[in-house]
What does this fold into?
Amino acid sequence: MRTARDAGLPLIRIAPVDKSDHTTIASIADLVVTAAARGEALGLSATITVPQYLDRLAPVLADAALGNAALLAATDPDGAVLGTAQWTRSPYPTRRFLAELDRVVVAPSARGQGVGQALIDAIVTHARAADIELLVLEARGNNHGAIALYERNGFQYAGALRNVVAIGPARHDMVLMSRDLGRPPGLDLLGDLPAGDGASLPRGVFQGRDWQRTERLLLCVPTPQVADAYFAIHGDPATNVHNPAGPVRDPAAVPPVLEVWQRHWREEGYGYWVVRDPQDGRVLGFAGVRPPLQDDEVFLNLYYRFRPDAWGKGYATEAGRAAIAMAAKVAPGLPVVALIRPKNAPSLRVAERLGLRLEGEVERQLGTYLKYSVVPTL
It folds into this structure.
């Protein structure tokens, strides 16, 4: 519940409506039906009646009793309804964290007092408490005032269906908007990557804008969302046995590294990948080529590091082949170099399987490395 003090409004109360509060429900129906008759962009016929709208509210109130929706009312001290808004959880089992914001209506006499803003704030708070991660809404394309209000509240343009809203002989756009309310920790946000259940590719397609497929792997441009996986792998002592710097100990050190990787992809079009299992999207490791951050020589550093349960399956070799092929395209004639600690036998075997040849020992700040190198060709 929001009060006048919470919203900064004089004596206005905003709270969810219980299905037993027939008086408030009837007032909400009257408010919305009157607004529809004025031609407001609510997705309703201008001739809808109060009984018809009450029928529409019945399933919302039933869902609200189960925690899957909420109907909010903004009322004055006398209980008069000044505004309303509602959210409803998606009925699809795979989208239960998604909800639609709908029917934000404010009485003409209460406009300009921040009632609409307070209703949206209350909706966000209520939906977030119900474990909603993403709020979506539809706005008529000509309703620029509402669109601006939603934008001020963190809703972003998500697309539009052109000329699909019929008002007499006229047709208007339907604008789609969304606001992320926060994701629980541990999620792997795969977006449109071709991974996991239901993934498919057109025949003969093996590469997209931010990913490419090998026989068993999905190689992806890094995003901030892989920070947890990066820390889990690079912070594991088992993956750092041969690393004189030791494991990463501070999760806060990870985002700057990923930003450097992303910037190189944006500016140069290649770099280090996130290596995923296309069957479930799980991060297996990281691999790729890019220039070293600090070195007098001009070469591309070959890098691969995988989680322990992915060892021994040839993933590093498979990702390494793709990295060397990428190097041949983006930097022809430039050597690809792997600097490996002398006792790191598994990494040495990968370099040899990839066709790199030992050129000798080199000294770096953290000790002695064996330098393996190859100049890839197309």
